[in-house]
């Protein structure tokens, strides 16, 4: 999916209800927390003037190009760069032999080479890179590199990876989690089984990967690129460059979204190596094909389920086998598997569970972090099982879910108690009770409502409407012992406040939130957020809502420390404590009204600053039976999907998605709406159209013409039935992650609606037309 910084709303608009949701002048504050403060870069992105990494420029720059393998699995017999090096305008050609430091890297497991050495393990793996004085010259030179391959049989079926020859020296098994909870021998009166397949979704960012590297006089290098975790990038890149971390600086610029393509070093490594080799600035701007081949995708997943229930529909046991295709390298697979296994039963009370999860290496394209990884795949499966169980019992699918929903204090199958607010029943009631959209009229003026659009071949008589429901959950922050910490500095100089925090703005709205926090705490309206680079203390990756929690918490703590510095002289002058003073609407007042002054007057001639950290409570790895307190907190959502299906053609149109979401606290109503709309649209893409086609390890047609993304015309109307603001007491501001859970739940809801419309078992995402066709 594209960046969710700007989202398009189809005709009909978005409906929003619930506390603190107003956007008009009379409905809520105009600054601070709770205000619909617009993102600072919103207009630039809408107008097309926002500077992405591909727009970077430096005097005397060279252009880079990367040679990639055309084979998914092959032995490299020889690499001849002589012809490329001799081409006019070519300044450098590098291979694995030119990596001066560590020749493998990885965020969790250092198993991926900067350039393939002896073996190619996936289609598109980098072999060499070229720097030249013109982009066309660089590409021609890369194509002129002669590589002799001995093509090997690729391992492309993850089920066969267990017995196949090792794809990697570390073996084909990345991780196995055997979760055991309760009585393994328990059985229910009613048993339903299912086999589910989830396809390979690409993050498909607005802009393809790009960057600029500039050599430094100390032998180091500065890299300007759209990183979402610049400090980790610096550590990994420095190790490959054979440099100290302080000799490498990552400057974040033009991030189009927090997606998997921004968490790989496919840009940073060749750029840095070429810049140091040539002594010149070097720019790389990938085309869309290179982007598809180079970055990670959502894990394709095979899931086998068996649900046990009693005669009244209460779950007794869930059995599942989950197999994630990690591609050639480990990357994020272990983390995705932990989420998949832990959430395999969904937001339901299950007294007994037997769940096995595996992540394996294959010669397929790499898999990694894509919003809701692990959780999205299992949600489609366990919600399919709940629909199947309801049909077997002759029970309403919503009623079956209501009998089993989780609440605060219940246990996950990992044995962890759900201590955060878990208003799952309230969410489900909200979407069930929301009014349904009107039925389309069978008239020529309304033909555009048919599946397939105005030019579609469908007939109104073949259209069936379906309504489906789904519940889902995600975890926030890192898991299994990840040390989550962020540092922020807040400085106030007269009427202007400045925030320095290395939390990357990925479209999730952190820079806007930082401004709101300082406005709220200090009463200063003009707040600037400094651009991110690795000279600042680390703030961690931009994923799983962590910057709202951890980095926002750090900004709040720093701002409160500055607030104390501001109020102490005033409190001492009047013989009272700072707790008796309030800051609101730009004024400082005491509880008794004796003191009343403006923030501007109190700050006049002063420069105040403070630095603070935020670190959530620790978690622990899952043990040998899948047990442990692995997650900091959870977020939940319920979605009702309404679809129209042409049962002759198998075309599906999503009419409306009604969302009820557990948000903790709404910090910016407008951005909450935008995050939910974007998440739902990304989920609809995964449900209906988005599937990167791979044949025997080779990506077929890696371009946007063969990878259909939902457009503004495809985006359904998103109706927000309720935002439950039950604050998580351990989270700063009480807020929860917003973006990921709609992505997780939307595909399952769409599949449920198609099942309701057709009566067909929908067990594969994206839904293929033949799965929605009703035979006479």
Automatic annotation (TrEMBL):
Region (Disordered): 1-36
Domain Aldehyde oxidase/xanthine dehydrogenase a/b hammerhead positions: 47-153
Spans through the membrane: none
Short name of one Pfam family: Ald_Xan_dh_C
Coiled coil: none
GO molecular function, one term: oxidoreductase activity
Gene3D superfamilies per record: Aldehyde oxidase/xanthine dehydrogenase, a/b hammerhead, Aldehyde oxidase/xanthine dehydrogenase, molybdopterin binding domain
Listed name of the protein: Oxidoreductase
Lineage, top ranks: Bacteria, Bacillati, Actinomycetota, Actinomycetes, Kitasatosporales
């Amino acid at each position: 999916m594209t960046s969710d910084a700007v989202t398009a709303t189809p005709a009909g608009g978005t409906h929003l209800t619930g506390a603190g949701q107003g956007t008009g002048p009379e409905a809520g504050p105009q600054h601070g927390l709770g205000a619909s403060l617009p993102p600072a870069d919103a207009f630039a992105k809408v107008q097309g003037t926002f500077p992405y990494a591909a727009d970077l420029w430096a005097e005397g720059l060279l252009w880079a190009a990367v040679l990639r393998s055309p084979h998914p699995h092959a032995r490299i017999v020889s690499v001849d760069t002589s012809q490329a090096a001799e081409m006019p305008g070519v300044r450098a050609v590098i291979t694995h032999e030119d990596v001066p430091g560590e020749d493998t890297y990885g965020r969790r497991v250092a198993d991926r080479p900067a350039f393939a050495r002896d073996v190619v393990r996936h289609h598109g793996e980098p072999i060499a890179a070229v720097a030249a004085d013109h982009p066309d010259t660089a590409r021609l030179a890369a194509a002129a590199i002669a590589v002799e391959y001995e093509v090997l049989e690729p391992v492309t079926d993850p089920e066969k990876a267990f017995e196949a020859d090792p794809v990697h020296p570390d073996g084909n098994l990345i991780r196995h989690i055997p979760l055991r909870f309760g009585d393994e021998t328990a059985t229910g009166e009613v048993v339903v089984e299912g086999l589910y397949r989830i396809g390979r979704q690409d993050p498909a960012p607005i802009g393809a990967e790009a960057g600029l590297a500039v050599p430094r006089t100390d032998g180091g290098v500065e890299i300007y690129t759209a990183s979402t975790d610049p400090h980790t990038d610096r550590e990994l890149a420095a190790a490959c460059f054979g440099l100290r971390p302080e000799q490498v600086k990552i400057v974040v610029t033009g991030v189009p979204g927090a997606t998997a393509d921004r968490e790989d070093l496919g840009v940073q490594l060749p750029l840095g190596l070429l810049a140091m080799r040539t002594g010149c600035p070097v720019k790389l701007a990938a085309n869309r094909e290179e982007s598809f081949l180079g970055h990670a995708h959502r894990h394709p997943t095979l899931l086998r389920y068996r649900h046990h229930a009693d005669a009244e529909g209460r779950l007794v046991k869930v059995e599942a086998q989950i197999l994630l295709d990690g591609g050639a390298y480990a990357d994020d697979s272990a983390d995705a598997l932990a989420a998949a296994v832990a959430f395999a039963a969904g937001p339901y009370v299950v007294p007994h569970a037997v769940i096995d999860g595996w992540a394996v290496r294959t010669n397929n394209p790499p898999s990694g972090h894509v919003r809701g990884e692990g959780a999205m795949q299992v949600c489609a499966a366990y919600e399919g099982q709940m629909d199947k169980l309801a049909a077997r019992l002759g029970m309403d699918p919503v009623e079956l879910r209501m009998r089993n929903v989780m609440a605060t204090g219940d246990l996950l199958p990992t044995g962890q108690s759900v201590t955060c607010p878990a208003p799952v029943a309230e969410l489900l009631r909200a979407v069930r009770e929301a009014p349904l959209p009107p039925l389309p009229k069978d008239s020529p003026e309304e033909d555009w409502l048919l599946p397939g659009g105005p030019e579609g071949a469908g007939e109104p008589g073949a259209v069936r409407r379906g309504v489906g429901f789904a519940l889902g959950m995600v975890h926030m922050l890192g898991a299994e012992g990840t040390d989550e910490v962020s540092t922020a500095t807040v400085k106030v100089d007269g009427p202007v406040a400045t925030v320095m925090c290395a939390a990357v703005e990925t479209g999730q709205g952190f820079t806007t939130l930082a401004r709101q926090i300082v406005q709220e705490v200090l009463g200063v309206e003009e707040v600037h957020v400094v651009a991110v680079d690795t000279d600042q203390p680390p703030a961690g990756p931009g994923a799983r809502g962590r910057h709202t929690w951890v980095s926002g918490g750090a900004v709040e703590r720093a701002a409160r420390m500055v607030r104390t510095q501001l109020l102490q002289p005033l409190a001492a002058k009047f013989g009272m404590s700072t707790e008796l003073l309030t800051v609101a609407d730009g004024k400082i007042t005491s509880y008794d009204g004796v003191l009343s002054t403006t923030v501007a007057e109190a700050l006049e001639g002063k420069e105040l600053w403070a630095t603070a950290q935020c670190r959530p409570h620790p978690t622990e790895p899952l043990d040998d039976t899948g047990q442990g307190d692995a997650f900091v907190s959870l977020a939940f959502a319920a979605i009702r999907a309404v679809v129209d299906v042409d049962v002759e053609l198998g075309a599906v149109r999503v009419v409306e998605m009604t969302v009820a979401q557990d948000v903790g606290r709404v910090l910016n109503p407008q951005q909450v709406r935008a995050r939910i709309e974007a998440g739902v649209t990304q989920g609809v893409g995964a449900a209906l159209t988005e599937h990167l086609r791979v044949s025997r390890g080779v990506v077929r047609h890696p371009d946007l013409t063969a990878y259909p993304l939902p457009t503004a015309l495809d985006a359904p109307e998103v109706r927000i039935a309720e935002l439950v603001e039950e604050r998580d007491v351990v989270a700063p501001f009480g807020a929860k992650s917003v973006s990921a859970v709609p992505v997780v739940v939307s595909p399952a809801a769409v599949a449920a609606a198609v099942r309701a419309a057709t009566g067909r078992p929908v067990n594969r995402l994206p839904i293929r037309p033949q799965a929605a066709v009703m035979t006479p």
